[in-house]
Write a structure and sequence with these properties.
mainly alpha; 77% helix
């Protein structure tokens, strides 16, 4: 089973909406990089059971993102802020608006 790094991001956004066992299996697999055998031992279930929790949890995470789009929107906002930051930093010093740069940094800290 190849690991999809996007699942780790979706887990950060929507993990609280999963069942405890789905959350434990996904967090162990994607964030702690444990093997299926290690997760199975920790959870006291078979590797097939772990696979079932992973598949079901992944299915839910993808459905949440499809409906809500929070992770995608977060990425778009960060990309826009990075672009704004880059434009300001390339401006001549005498035309640079330090207040605007501070505002962008403040917004970046909020999201």
């Amino acid at each position: 089973m190849a690991k999809d790094l996007r699942m780790g991001i979706l887990l950060d956004f929507y993990g609280g909406l999963l069942t405890d066992k789905q959350l434990l299996a996904l967090n162990s697999y994607y964030n702690e990089d444990l093997s299926l055998a290690e997760i199975a031992e920790d959870m006291g279930i078979s590797r097939q059971g772990v696979m079932a929790f992973l598949r079901q949890g992944e299915k839910h995470l993808l459905a949440f993102e499809e409906k809500l789009g929070l992770a995608a929107k977060f990425g778009e906002i960060n990309a826009g802020l990075d672009k704004m930051r880059g434009i300001i930093k390339t401006m001549p010093q005498d035309k640079r608006c330090e207040e605007l740069l501070l505002l962008i940094e403040t917004v970046s800290g909020i999201i």
